[in-house]
Amino acid sequence: MTSTFILASGSPRRRELLASLGIDFTIMKPDINEDQHPGENPYDHVRRLSVEKAAAVAARLDSADTPGAVILAADTVVILSADTIGVIDGDDGTILGKPTDADEARAMLRRLREQKHHQVCTAITLIKRADDQQTQLTRLTHTRVTLRAYTDAEIEAYIESGDPFDKAGSYSIQH
């Protein structure tokens, strides 16, 4: 019996990471609503999305064709001022998602520049299918990030590169 590893994501960065590890995998993009529920805190939100993405892909698999399948899903959000120290500028817990256009990316990057720090939070869910059962593991991680005081010209050059448009908070740390 061969195991199938499935990445439940359309993220180019996640594809790159798995490929760099030499893992053979297939991609199945989950189709879920990623809106934050009313009253849902950012950590519960990102955890729920990770679980729903994995479950959506698992539901599409035929267990006879994919016995032993392993599904990996993840979600990442940027959270303004969400930390244990306290509220900064009244923005505690605000999620910055992926920008829809250059103006939104510009606004996000300026807002992040003005913050003392923010958090990047990622939840991952792994589902392992075996016979007619499946097991699930979900983990959450968050990192406190402080950005340097970049200029408006640097923001414009970054937006011109096209990089902000598929990134939570309009940036990726590797760039």
Q: Would you mind describing this structure in some detail?
A:
With 175 residues, the protein is an alpha/beta fold. The chain is built from four helices and six strands. Strands 1, 2, 3, 4, 5 and 6 form a six-stranded mixed β-sheet that branches. Helix 1 links the parallel strand 1 and strand 2. It starts with a strand and ends in a 14-residue tail after the last helix. About 6% of the residues have low confidence.
SS-derived structural category: alpha/beta
Q: Uncertain runs with pLDDT below 50, 5 residues or more? A: 82-91
User: Regarding quaternary structure, how should these chains be classified?
Assistant: single chain
Ends: how far apart?
A: 41 Å
Strand portion: 25-35%
Descriptors:
single chain; alpha/beta; 4 helices; 6 strands
Quick structural gist:
The chain has 175 residues and is an alpha/beta fold. It is 29% helix and 26% strand. Strands 1, 2, 3, 4, 5 and 6 form a six-stranded mixed β-sheet that branches.
Topology:
Elements: E1 5-7, H1 12-20, E2 26-27, H2 42-60, E3 70-80, E4 94-96, H3 102-114, E5 118-130, E6 133-145, H4 152-161
Parallel strand pairs: 1-2, 1-3
Antiparallel strand pairs: 3-4, 3-5, 5-6
